[in-house]
Amino acid sequence: MTAIQPALDGTIPTTSSYAEWVDDVRPAFVTAARSGRRFTTYEIAKEHELPEPPNPRADWGNFAQSLVRDGLIEHVDFERSSRPTGERSAVSVWRGTPAARAGRVA
């Protein structure tokens, strides 16, 4: 996976479909899950300069839940968002499952 380059205005472009977006961003989350570290989706997206999904308000949450269903990540906590939205709302903190950390799930 290669990082998506920001547009001239500094924004990260979106991809055309949810399926394409998942293909682009999933490898970064597999790597994070295998590391055993705790993370938020925003931290991984920022760290890897991942593109925004077609529907950011719904797709990030749907994607995280698909990773849970796939046995890749598990919810471990809530923390205040570090995203520069000004809201500082509570967000989920994730960690790779034991199977993901052992490399049995991807």
UniProtKB/TrEMBL annotation:
Residues 80-106 are annotated as: Disordered. It comes from the Bacteria. This is Uncharacterized protein. It comes from Streptomyces cupreus.
